[in-house]
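Quarterly update, task 2.4: flavin-adenine dinucleotide-bound model.
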Amino acid sequence: MTGRTPPIAHETVAAETFDYVIVGAGSAGSAIAARLSESGRHRVLLLEAGTDDRWIWLRVPLGAGRVLLSERGLWRFFTQPEPRLAGRRMFWPRGRVLGGSSTINGMLWVRGEPAEYDRWRDAGCAGWGYDDVLPFLKRVERYAPGDPARRGTQGPVNVVQFEPDELGAAFHHACQQAGIPATADYNGAQYEGVGILQTNTRRGLRHGGREAYLDPARGRETLVVRIGARAHRLLVENGRAVGVEYRQGGQRRLARARNEVIVAAGAVQSPHLLELSGIGDRERLASFGIASVVHLPGVGENCRDHLHTRISYECTRPITLNDMLGNPLRQAWMGLRYLLRRDGPMAACTTTVHALARSDPSLDRPDVKIQMHILSAEDPRDPKRLVLDRFPGFGIGCFALRPRSRGSVHLASADPEQPPAIVANYLADPRDRATSLAALRLVRRIAEQPALKALIVREVRPGPAAQSDEALLDHIARLGATSYHPVGTCRMGSDAMAVVDHELRVHGVAGLRVADASIMPTMVSSNTNAPSFMIGERCADFILREAGSNRTS
Ligand SMILES: Cc1cc2nc3c(=O)[nH]c(=O)nc-3n(C[C@H](O)[C@H](O)[C@H](O)COP(=O)(O)OP(=O)(O)OC[C@H]3O[C@@H](n4cnc5c(N)ncnc54)[C@H](O)[C@@H]3O)c2cc1C
């Protein structure tokens, strides 16, 4: 079943040799590189296609929105036209910078639902139940006020809880009036409920993979970080991954791995790199003239994402970001406050409170996430159309926590510099349509509660006339957007469509692991950054244990 990648025909290239070669310095890759190199026993090469851009908007929390309008630090991917979203091609940015998507993301810190990790374990991923992953979730984070039995207090990633703004506080109250319980720590004792959001920030600045894992590792002799280094394919000899061919500064280079190659290029690019390397569905690869190294039909399949939709409202009072960003004096106040105290709106995200809730009380667990966004815009997720409303406005966004619809990410060309073809396939499963409708109706129910109603002039989008399923689905089709959470394209498991085993080893290829959001079998009922860091920590632990230099566990 296994073969060999054809030799490089073009030019002779000198190869360097390391113990481990990691592709991708994102959330997972940063953690793996830092942990492997800190042991002092292994020489590690970390290849990152992006730069080490320290642009201010990549660091100030409120700048996350601004980053999406720019070209800096981003892979600007688009999906294929989405049939159930009016044929729109959805903008799917990913981080192209040290820290990967953790350097451009919204910084919301959500570790996932314990029950969903248990389902991973029960579906055949031994060692991935909540009790198994908890030590690694704790290892990642430094959350001072947390219950140490459940929360990490010494980890590299600093986590803080917001001070909710006035709208967030009203939303918090309104959720309870609508029957949603309050939770003091949704990452701790009680996942379900309305809670004040936590973010991975430190002293008012982003604290992602770069800041938390890579900056402290700078200067280690055991870690070499190459930026602007884009992996083109993995080298496989006699069924074993032995290195990576990459391009840097216009030059083709080779890095050989004595022990292992770890692919951590994210849910879009990890399957892409595997396919470029002959690891994927044999027939699909043949159609691009790529020789099969191992037939793994699951590569690039099982792609899941959260489809986010908002209902937006005009607010009775000028307490929204629309008012602050639209007024030069208030902007100056925000800037000054941030410079002097590192707090205020610039140190926060556009959302400060969320609810992990049941759209129907008869369900046995939460199925939707609802969150308050303190701004409103014509199309808040489409960078080309981001024009804030001229009135005080806010939105309440929602998505189905565990989408059933599955898309794919596959080669669109054998040229490694060309983007892959992404099919999100949003709402293909009728259960996702039903949950999305239920979520929108729950949003309206929350908005009708006295605590929030007092702040609402009118519903702006889609507007009160949109009551039927058809009208609401039309609203989703026009304004629904990614929550930026693609996962699952190199799914963990032991069946024929699984790509990696429970220790993240690629089936059928020795010396090769994939470790990033792509290995998640399903969504862990949450945002995906904290789980991606955890996956990186686990991968490093598997490797170090195998190499006989385990740190803890
Ligand atoms: C705009 C945005 C907002 C988000 N907001 C949140 C949020 O608020 N909370 C949350 O929990 N999650 C959020 N997410 C999702 C979360 O950030 C990601 O799920 C997580 O960072 C994924 O980590 P990863 O390690 O899988 O991949 P990434 O962090 O994406 O890392 C992949 C890395 O590999 C590099 N790479 C890719 N291909 C190659 C190649 N061929 N050669 C070399 N390098 C390569 C990339 O440049 C990148 O640095 C957001 C994501 C985005 C994009």
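Highlight for this quarter: Confidence is low (pLDDT under 50) at residues 8-12.
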